[in-house]
Amino acid sequence: MEQRIGSSSKPLKGAGFDPAFIPGLTSPESAEPEDAEPETDQAEAEAAVSDEDAAPVEAADAEAAEEAEDAEESEEPEESETPEGPVFEAADRRAKIVADHKGVRLTLDEESCEFRWDEIGAVETEAPRFGKRFTVTVHTPDRRWYPIEIEATARSRFKEWEEELDAVLDAYFEE
Question: For residues 173 and 103, is the Cβ–Cβ distance under 8 A?
Answer without folding.
Answer: no
